[in-house]
Amino acid sequence: MTKAPPAGFWAQAAQDPERTVLIAPGDERWTAGRLHAAANRLVHGLRAAGLARGDAFAVVLPNSVEFLTAYLAATQAGFYLVPVNHHLVGPEIAWIVADSGAKVLIAHERYADPARQAADEAGLPAERRYAVGTVEGFRPYAELLDGRPESAPSDRTLGWVMNYTSGTTGRPRGIRRPLPGKPPEEAYLGGFLGIFGIRPFDDNVHLVCSPLYHTAVLQFAGASLHIGHRLVLMDRWTPEEMLRLIETHRCTHTHMVPTQFHRLLALPPGTRAGYDVSTMRHAIHGAAPCPDHVKRAMIDWWGGCVEEYYAASEGGGAFATAEDWLKKPGTVGRAWPISELAVFDDHGNRLPAGELGTVYMKMSTGGFRYHKDEGKTRKNRIGDFFTVGDLGYLDEDGYLFLRDRKIDMIISGGVNIYPAEIESVLLGHPAVADAAVFGIPHDDWGEEVKAVVEPAEGHRPGPALAADILAHCARRLAGYKRPRSVDFRAALPRDPNGKLYKRRLRAPYWEGHERAV
Question: What is the DSSP string of 379-416?
Fold first, then answer.
């Protein structure tokens, strides 16, 4: 094992500028010195464009060198970086640009139409629009860097990433933390990855296999870079390409979502066996529930590196090793050292072990507020604890078990039904590639259980398949939990992080009825 580099990307770049720190899509290799120089030049360019400490700029970019350059520039110049989900359409992007007060928008030509529409709707001046590639009405990204010095900028100070919540229940809201006024070198770096047992040695290789606009993905990548790990970037994820990159670059850790597990397991056995994944030490997953049978199959294949966490863009969280999960199947773990977990009832009373309620978290590393939404900031708190609306319970050993999101809970005939349990059963059917369960109107019961299914490749949607899926559920679920009907979609509306936009599926069924969808 090689000697650990100094803490912080800046010190590493100064000590060993020729060390390869990034393998970009297309196998382009970047040294620490080259990446450092690009980040410095971008700071100078953004300042020339009018940004000052505390200002925000937004990016609509794929996983790329430009994304990481923006992250490094923001976090050493006291800016807020606003990563935008590049799957959003123009008006959705415009909302985030305007709400965040972003003074500059950097977009990739791949997203030209929605980026241009967003800039127009947000009223962003032409001189503050920049494009990687060619976008009509945008200035070339190179203009931000060309002629700028590669030297470190003056007045360096730590900036933050300002993520926007996923918007699964309404308008996304920015999570804004106060700037600490510290030098960039004092960023909370290795301690975060230390929660998961990841150490700062430069023989570690972090595979970025999900979009960097996602809070956890960028946090894992940034922390890995700062503690001396090489990054390997995937642009568009496919299961076999992920296996190839793990073997080729001897990747040691990554951040994943259960949807990726499901699709990896769907590969032919010969394909799976054809790649060496033995270098993996930490395959950490989160962001969405993982069905038990999927988790167990991944542990059988990849071994003890399959680990899980529970957190949110607002903060975290819990962590479970493979050993924890095998000991207590279904758990998402115990509280991080920097976090505290609690379960409260609807009246704000803290519940004892084993009782189901709303899960709350508290962080010791600082607070946050929802940008321009103090009502939501106050509503989701009890003292120093906050919630994102998940239901669950803590067992007597402090392990957290999630049941579902409160807003997704179905109440049928006065009985609470939790869709995640039913979705897990549906995903156990060989013809089901993806599934969503939610309540739809019923005159007598209030709600009945509806399943929407994405058929697996080679399976034809229709009454015969629906009947087979319902029979599968009848063998595994109590009568009141079973879907009453199955509808099919070519693809369910998930973002690449595994977040399911269930609201989009549910809303048409509730037109003309009263329900908060």
Answer: HTEETTEE--SEEEEE-TTS-EEEEEEGGG-EEETTEE
Tell me which DSSP letter residue 279 carries.
T
The first and second tokens of residue 51, run together, are 């940004």
Instruction: State the average pLDDT over residues 312-337.
Output: 88
Q: What is the pLDDT of residues 205-245, one digit of tens each?
A: 999 999 999 888 999 999 999 999 999 999 999 999 999 99
Per the confidence metrics, is the pTM higher than 0.85? no
434: part of which helix (H) or strand (E)? strand 432-442
List 437's β-bridge partners, or say none.
451
Q: Are 435 and 453 in contact (CB under 8 A)?
A: yes
Answer whether 106's CB lies under 8 Å from 132's CB: yes
123 contacts: CB under 8 Å, gap ≥ 6? 98
Q: For the chain, what percentages of helix, strand and coil (3-state, to nearest 5) are there?
A: 35, 25, 40
> Cβ distance 153 to 184 under 8 Å?
no
Q: Which residues contact 16 (CB under 8 A, 6 or more apart)?
A: 5, 32
